[in-house]
Description:
This protein is of the alpha+beta class and 757 residues long. The chain contains 17 helices and 32 strands. The protein is globular, with a radius of gyration of 27 Å.
Amino acid sequence: MDTARKMKNDPVDHGRRRLLVGGLTAGGGLLLGVPSFGLLAQREPTSEGGQIGYYVEILPNGKVIIGSAQPEIGQGVKTSLPMLVAEELDVDWTQVSVRQMPLGIVKTADGFAWKYGGQGAGGSTSVTDNWTYLRETGAMARHMLILAAAHQWNVDPEQCRTESGEVICDSAGQKAGYGSLAAAAAGIPIPETEIRLKSPADFHIIGQPKKVVDALDIVTGKAQYGIDTDRPGMHYAVVARCPWLDGRVESFDDSEARKVPGVIDVFTLQGPKPGEPYIILATGVAVVANSTWAAIQGRKKLKVNWSHGPHAGESTKTFWQQTRELLQGQGQIVRDDGDFDAAMELAEKKVTATYQVPFVNHAPMEPQNCFADVRENEALIIAPTQMPSGASRAVAAVTGIDREFIQVEMTRVGGGFGRRLTNDYVAEAAMISKKITAPVKLQWTREDDVKNDFYRPSGMHEMTAGIDVNGDISAWTQRLASASKYYRRENVSAEEMFGAELYVDDFPAQIIDNFRLEWLDVQSGVPRGSWRAPAHTANAFVIQSFLDEIAHATGQDPLELRLKLYGPSRDLPYSNHGGPVFNPYRLSRLLEKVAEEIGYGSERPAGRAVGIASHFTFGGYAAHAVEVSVSESGDLTIHRIVAAVDCGVVVNPMGVEAQLQGGTVDGLSTALNLEITVEDGQIVQSNFHDYPIMRMNQLPARVETHIMPFGDTPTGMGEMGIPTLAPALTNAIFNASGIRIRQLPIKDQLRKAMSVA
Length: 757
């Protein structure tokens, strides 16, 4: 996610602390959070269940309900963020329950302001952004309970302390549970004084492994995903989208579709014109019915005459041909340190290599879906979205309804990976509901999801390094010809398009003195967007592979070369997302750890070897070591994977471990098998038979994870585990077989290379 690029209509934060208020529940409990406005005021917090509009609700029986404002896409924030509140509130975690909060925005004279702080899941920012704010919220609630108790006991609040949901005054011999104090605390105005936060030495929740709060609901089928939404009177819809990139509906015959029992209506959804920003992804024909099955059967009966659009001649072959031709010329120099040309001219030796990274699909387990109930002047949206504010904007754009009157409720998300940062499917549902003047649930199939996506950008990387007489890297350039993620983005100039493809402060910037980055713009009609750790997945593969190639060409050990380059602990300025600093030494710690654990220097049989890689992603640091063997016929066996991560302060070790494991598996699956291709202006792949996600029985027997905390603040964890897997794997393959993989996915490249050899 490009979190630095805020949308012009995003809410702004006018000081979240000033919005904190206290209140009393109907049952005599304490509420602490922010006031409800507009449509959301109809959904007040209640101990009887439902969605709460406040961060903290303390019930008379001492139970605590904590609201989770961020989308839960499997990254664990519905657990880790309430842990921050509960820690400072000083309650037992067993007394806490968590409920999902809706989108909270408030209309102001300047536009809109966040009610609960920014809401969105992308760029691995949820824990980082809320680290102080949510702890302050919990600490404020604790302070108000102390004030209430001190007033009752007629003692100085400084004489009171808290422990496990009780206020205790040792000098007065008094103690009281939070539940008994809640009503009195609710009547206390929010103090203006600064509230002291706990010392990390006093943490008893933060840093302790906690299971996902709704794990039981997930495994028993009770958890509500978007696909589970069921409202009285709702219709069901699917859309036949144009299979040609930017194609249109010229005409359609729906006579047979309307004969399908249950089909209610059929009509065109107009998508954006070529080059326009995406609101929905493609022009299509919507089929509305009284069940999803009837809608799908009706869609099968449609006869649509599609125009082939302006990209009918595009194919994967022409895409790569275009990248090669562009790299013969000059592009946009986006960083140029030192005197690169002179250093390269003086180099004793030059190392060059070219790498290719394909388009890939997000493939979330839950295909896109959305419930929309669009009325004349208000709308209700229930959706699995990573960006609820974007959903609000999308609905406003296609309906004309003021965002103040658009209610967005978030379900648990069955996989996001960046796909649900874009709310095209929400806009489709709103358009359909508005057209039929009734509530509707739009459902995508797996085929819809694979063929209609904002794919990870594809590109060709030309790498060159100059080596001086001492064997050191004296000059480095990365020339990238790619199709930018910013394609068709509003307010992005041609000169800014590179920013989604090359992060100018990434390693080895500021380490190699003569350093140049160059970008060349590949034209393609394929929609592009954020895919888990966006450009890092491509650039880590390229940079970490190239380091190994340099080590091999210069007779150096790959680990020692990296450690030498990373150097001592120091903070380097880092202007990209994940900054403001990057400390390369933190990568060294991780590399040494994975190398030690996997036995990096140990002798192994012929055909068996280890590869390593490390990378800085969105504020976090990760490394992988992979052990493989390659048979004489080219069969690849992955014996062992060791992963290590440094995400600063660890809030929930169990969650960090799960994310590191999941990122490792996702990275492995993508590196081995996954690729989206184009033929005659159409996406070729359609389901898991030709987009083969890794199955459980294909995983290596040993996947080990190590967490190495650092410093006093946390970073996110949702994306750090992916980028270094692919280069560690391909480096291991080279060390085992002598075959260098420069093009992803690996697929059957080894067998082909062995057969030629």
